[in-house]
Write a structure and sequence with these properties.
Largest sheet: 7 strands, mixed
Low-confidence stretches: none
Number of domains: 1
CATH architecture: Alpha-Beta Complex
Structural class: alpha/beta
Number of strands: 7
Distance between the termini: 14 Å
Mean pLDDT: 94
Shape: elongated
Strand content: 25-35%
CATH class: Alpha Beta
C-alpha cells in the first residue's frame, strides 16, 4: 500500500515491526530513548495515549514534511493496577501469578504525527487467562524473555498459547499494535 508519505515506526519492538510488515506498508524504524513515566492521576486509557503521545513529541522537531511518525505504548491492567514491564524475574513471576485465572485488560495507545496533523487513539482488548501453575510460570520465565513486555507475557509466545482462553477485541492489540485501527487512520491521514 502506498501512503504517499514515509512512515516512521518509532519503536524497537520486533512484534510491532512484524505486524507493520504484514500491512505491506513501506516504513523505516527510527528510535529515540524516551522515559515511560506518566502522571499518577491518569485513567487507564489515558496512560497508554499519554505515553504514545509523549514518545511522538520527542520526534516533533525532526519530522520531515513527507513523514508520519507512528508511536505506540501498550499497558496491561488488572482491575485498577497497571502492570508495566517487569524489572526482574521476581516481579515477572508476581505479575503472572496475579493474571493467573483472571480477566485483564490490554490497552494500546497510538499516535500518528506529521508536521501538520496529530491523531491519538487507543484500542482495548479483554484477555481471559486460565489458572497457571507455578511450574508453568517458571518454565515461561526460564525459556522466554518477558522483561520487555507489559504484564510480563507475549500473546504470541508459549505462555500466550497455553494461558489465553479467549479474547474480546483485537489479538494484534495484545501483541502491541492494533493494526486494523492504524490502517484505517492511515487511510484518512
Amino acid at each position: 500500500m502506498n501512503l504517499n508519505r514515509k512512515l516512521i515506526l518509532a519503536s524497537n519492538s520486533p512484534r510491532r515491526k512484524e505486524l507493520l510488515d504484514k500491512l505491506d506498508i513501506d516504513f523505516e524504524v527510527r528510535v529515540k530513548e524516551v522515559a515511560e513515566d506518566f502522571p499518577e492521576n491518569l485513567r487507564r486509557e489515558e496512560i497508554a495515549e499519554y505515553l504514545a503521545n509523549h514518545k511522538a513529541e520527542a520526534y516533533g522537531a525532526d519530522i520531515q514534511p513527507d513523514e508520519i511518525i507512528l508511536t505506540a505504548d501498550t499497558i496491561v491492567c488488572l482491575d485498577d493496577q497497571v502492570l508495566n514491564k517487569p524489572a526482574d524475574e521476581t516481579e515477572a513471576f508476581r505479575m503472572l501469578s496475579l493474571l493467573s485465572g483472571r480477566q485483564h485488560t490490554v490497552i494500546t495507545g497510538v499516535c500518528l504525527l506529521s508536521r501538520s496533523k496529530k491523531v491519538l487513539f487507543h484500542d482495548v482488548t479483554q484477555v481471559y487467562f486460565k489458572s497457571l501453575s507455578d511450574a508453568e510460570i517458571n518454565y515461561y520465565l526460564e525459556h522466554y524473555g518477558p522483561y520487555d513486555k507489559a504484564g510480563a507475557y507475549g500473546a504470541q509466545e508459549w505462555l500466550g498459547l497455553i494461558a489465553i482462553e479467549r479474547l474480546e477485541g483485537s489479538y494484534y492489540n495484545v501483541m502491541g499494535l492494533p493494526v486494523h485501527a492504524i490502517y484505517a487512520e492511515l487511510l484518512e491521514f
